Structure formats: C-alpha cells, structure tokens
Predict the structure.
Amino acid sequence: MDAELASLWGPGSAALVTLLVTDTFTSVKARLGRLFGRTDPVGEAVLPGELAEAGQDLAAARARGDSEAAGSAAAALEDALRAALTTLLRERPDLAPQLRDLLAEAIGQERTATAPPSLAAQHPARLPRITVRPMRHYQNNEDLLLRMDTVVAERAAAGVPAFLYLTGIPGIGKDALARRWLQRNAGDLTGPQLEASLGRDTRGNPPSPAAVLEGWLRRLGVPVQDLPAEPADLLGLLARTVHGRRAVFLLTDVMTPAQVRQLVPEDGELPDSVVLLTSRSLLPGLVGGFDAEPLTVGPLDGEHSRRLLVGVGRLDPDTAGTEAVRQITAGCDGLPLALVAVGAQLAVGPPGLAEEVAAALSRAATRMDALSADMDEDMSVSAALTPGYRDLDPETARVYRSLGLHPTAEFETDVLRAALPDMELAARHRALRRLTAAGLVQPVSGTRYRFAHPLIHSHALERARTEETAAARDRVTDQVTAFYLEVLERSEAALSGRHRHDPAGVYPGYAPTAPVDEAAVVAGLERRHDTLCQAVRLAHEAGRHEQAWRMAQAMHTYFLKTRRHTDWIRVHQWGVASARETNDLLALARMHFETGFAHQDRCSADRRDPQEARTHLDAAMELVAAPGRTPTEAERRTRSSALEALGLLAAKMGAPHEALARIDQAAEALGGIAHPRGRALFALHRGTFHALAGEHDLAEAQLLAAHDGFAALAPPNRFNQAKALTRYAEDRRAAGLTAAALDAADRALAALDGQGTPYQTADILLLRGTLHGESGGSARAAADLAAARDIFRALTSPRAADAAGLLARYGGGASPGGDVE
C-alpha cells in the first residue's frame, strides 16, 4: 500500500461507512460496487452482499434512534469494509489507484453533505417499474410477441386499453413472455408499471384486491391522508393518479375475471394502458368482459428446448449432442422452468450430472403416465430440481431448506442470519451466491432475494418437510418468527411511546436514545410489508400465539401511518385468534381494541366497519371490566382507549354529542393516571366534536386547551399543536370570524417552525390561502394556494387539483410557480 493510499485509509473508510447508509451519494456506492465487480439483476453496480447486510443493519439502527446498536453496526461495517478492501488489493493490486481516488472522493462528499434537500428532492414523483431481468437465453414465442405488438398498436389506435391474456400450464413461461414483451418495448412504456400476483399463496389464500390497491397507491406516492376507505374509491383514485401516463398492469396467476375488474379501472378512464394477464386456467370471462386477446403459451419444441438448455447450461457443442442432453430435453416436455432449472444446475454441477438428471427424468416420466396433467407439471418441475438440489453442498442445501420454511418467496439476508445463527456471514452469502448460480434464487437488491419461481419455493418447502426433523423445522420457524417480532417491536418503540401490553418487558430496552427518522423506519417496514403480514400468520398457524399477537400489536403504528387497512384488519384478526389461545386476558382485550380501532379508522359502511368496530371495542371493555375489584393501570388504559375509539367512531357517524360523552368516559376511565399527552388528545377530540355540533365557543375553549397541552409536553408536540390550531382556524371560519381564522392559521404554521410534514404544511397553506381569498386578499391567496398546489403535486396528492381550482378562483387568474390545472 503506497503512502498516499495509507494516509487516506482511515478517514476514507470511515467516510465510506457514512455514505453507504444514505440514499444520496449513489455514485460513490456504484464505484465501490464496480471495484468489487458486483452487479444487480439489471446490470447496475452494487455492493457485495456481506457489506450490504452490514450497511442495512447500521441504517436501520440509526433510523430507530438506537445509538448503541448504531455504534456497534458502524464499527462492524467499517471492519468488514476494510477487510474486503484489503482482500481486494491483495488479489488485484492494480486497483490501488482507483481505490485511492474513491477514498478521496468519499472524504470530500462526506464534508459537503450538509445542505438539506429541497421538497422536490425529498418527495420525487414516484414512477414504479416492473423489474425485468436480462434474458440472455430466451427462446421461441416470437409469433406471440409480434401478435402482442399488433394488438397493443390496434387498441391504441382505437383509443382503448390493450388486455393481453396469456394462458398455459405452470412453468410454461407465461410470466417470462410478459416480461420479455416489456423488455422489448421498454422505450415506449414510460409510464408507471404495477404488478401483482393474484394466485393463492403456499397456504391456499388469494390476495385481497383492496390490499393490492392500497399497496399500488403507496408505490405511486399517494399520501396516506388521501387514501379512501371504499375499494371503489381506491380504484377511482388509482385511475386519476395514472391517467394520461400510459400505465402498465401485470397481473399474474389470475383466478377469476372479478379479480381484474376490482384492480383495473374502466376502459374510458385509462384508454392508453396495457394490461398483461397470465393464468393457468381458461377464463372466457376475460375475453368476454374485457375484450382480452387470448394467447396460449405452449411448450417449446425440441430444437428450442435444446437451445435453452445449452445456453443456460453453458454447454459446449460436443456436450450439447449427447444422449443425456436429448433425454433431458425430452423429459422436460418443453417446460421452460424445468429446462432453466436443469441448465443452471448443469452450469455449476460436476461431470456426470447430466446423466443423473436424464435418468431421474426418465424414471419420473414412467411414473407419470398414469397421473393427471396437473400432477405431471408439478412432478416434472420437482424431478428437474431434485437432482441439482442433491448436488448442492450440505451448507447450501441447508440454506435452501431453511428458506423453504420462510413465509414468503422474497426474503432479506438478515432473516437468514436469524434462521441459521450458527452459520457465519461469509458462509451464508457463499450459499446465496451458489443458489443464485444454480438458478434457484434471484437477487433483488444488495440484501433482498426471491425464489426464482413459486414452484421452487414450494420445492424447498417440500425438501424441508421431507429431510428436516420436526424439531429442526420448529427451531427455524421459532427463529424466523422471533426475528420478525424483534424487528416489529423495535420499530414500534421508535415510532410511538403509546401504551402497550408488554409481558416480556422488552419495550423499555427498545426506547430510542437518539433522534428517530420515522420516514426511514416506516419505509423499512413497508419494504417487507407482505413478509411481515405473513410472519404473523405463520406464528398463528404454527401455534406461536404469544409471538403472533405481539407482532400484530407492534404493527399498530406502522399501519396507522400507512393506512393499509385491509392488511391491518387481517393481521389483527390473527392476533385476536392467537390471543384467545393464550391465558392472557389482557392480551385478548388489547387485540380486540387494536382490531376495533382499525375498523373505526377505515370506517367503510359497505364492509360493515362501524358494526365490527363496536363489537371488538365492546369486547375489549368487557374483558377489562374488573367486577368487584380495582382495575389495574393496564386495564384502565385499555378501557380508556376503547372508549376513545368509540368516540371517534361516533363522530364519523355524525353523532358529535355521543362522541363527546364517550371522550368524557375515556377520561374518567383513566382516573388519576398521569397521561398529559392523552388528556391533550381528549381536549383536541372535544374541540373537534364541538365544532361538528356547531358549538363554536365550546370548541374554542377545548382546541386552545389542546394546543396548550401539547405545547407543555417535553418535548413539545409541534405536530398536534399545529393540528389543534388548524382545527381552531376551521372553526373560526365556520363561525364567520375570518380575521380570527387567519390569525389561527398563521399561528399553526408558526407552531410547526419548519418541522411539520410537507402534507400538513400544504394543508394549512391551502386553508390560509382560501381565507385570504374569501377576505379579498388575492395576492396573498395566490401565494399560499400556489405553494400548497406545488407541495401537493410533489406529494402526488389529488388535492393538488383542489388547490389549483381555488387558485383560479381566488388568485385573480394568477398562477405563481406553474400553470393552473
């Protein structure tokens, strides 16, 4: 190591650690990835898996405000980085100049990383894309691809969306064909791309359409405050959000036409969209109901099967003509999934593997003659996978089986660390690289992987059930569910200081010791959303009932902030069922409260949310009634929370006086418990309910009391201070007191002191701009309304149109900062 490089080594590696856990300095990360020669599925340079995992640990600890864990993770990442770079220089000394330049750049960028990003940079317009991996060895289906091009062009010329319906047996390549078409037309498909699998999961349950819509709208960046409760309204909001942007929808494993109807807007709302549908079933309703073009994906012929096997298997011309290759080609029956699986195994397997696979497929074909077609397909894939699986080294095979027990086909490397705590970091990532080389898993990002096909996940689960003892399977399940429980409880502690039932006493130790990045914590949970929901289900179905209800409880604040109500309610239903299996009545009461709260928060009349909310909240209060004795503090808090939720529900149902009575009961239930934040919230609720009833003097007293209560907290709760003043401004406006309303709006913005969320800031600006407009101040109205419009636009909020309309009305036609929509 030369002197200049040595002088940069310490500060440079420390600077790299800082930059690796931010999203801003992508050039440094990309250059480091190129040094190591690692790329992601689309060819972009990425960090080695070991460094990516250590970086994720550090980023998560910092986001949670866990200073002790962050310190340990930073030291571990710096050690791992130095070790990796030392090894790299030992193997490639010619890279020393590049590393020297990289360390110098990292030091310089760390020093200049001080300017806060603009609002547009904080909230860039989201353009979700469907991941399309490079397809180096794709074979056949050229006629189908050309037909797809023709249909899309014809439908576009007619001004109607193009529905393309690909049908065929499992593993025949329907999904690959759809993605191949997307890859070929990537230059023309510049709008948002949304996908969902509509088939049943490994436990036989289809996804909820409402949950899919909620997830899509979140991916599009729509603020949670704008998400409606009813599925029809969610679909309408989706249509407005992607209108005019040539959206692409990829819906795989469609089981019924109703699923498509619930997820894709009407023809007239998205005339330029493309909808790709795949199904293993013949569904005439897709053709009749959507004018979908049916396209049957058949098996590859012998020549294309051979080419695919040879290409994936890296076979030379001599090997490609052997009898074993011909037998494999015939045994796979033109099924691309089987051919790719076998080819990947041949590419990394030992001599003689081709003959072993050929013999296995030959035996399987003999057995399958008397079986149904569906059984043939599944057994062909299993027969194709098993010989290659047998050739995995014991370490990699163990990882494969353990991942088969994971609740979803997608996973991150940290859960593998938890599932196999006795396996070292290098060994785990070596196994993942081997599974990737064998075509069994695919990297999604530096720390995220997924099984290459649902049938491969099923095969891994089958191997685990067949080859692992019950005790070994239980041990992995325990470790996986315990891992997700800790992730959720640490995140919940970072996001909220609310009361929780904590029989294990973990929450005090998880309390933040440094500032919390709430947005990063929520984003980390949202990245794993499906897995976390299925982890609760796994714990429930596996009889880990305490883990199940505790996980559900720990998702409360996450769900409250993301408003993904469908999964919120479903998860808490599992929580109720698991709590019922324990002897912990307080746990059951808390789960009924949590479930009732979720129902009242959504409050969909069509889905009977008001009735369900009352049922669960009444059940919670009955369980903590404590007849004949003094209730515990936990019981009092639970009763108070349930009554508060009933008050919120009554207000939504148009009964403000009933709501006020419930809040009074909630305050009484607390008794002498010191709960300053809760009492400030009660004042906020009372003020809001009095305003609903038109009782402006009473509303004024309560809303100002709420503001003072939030201001007196340590630290002051600026968000709720501003919220109380905003509602006070709205009430003053309703009372015809415009000057007082303007003063309250000014105070609300001042209370935020620049620390509010962009959405809350825009909301207050919209109100203040409207008040200025109503009082004749067109210049001030134009400034506030234009600012509100621009923020809402940056947030992908439909309220941008409201602000633009008010700007046209009150701004005298002026449109500072952009055109009126």
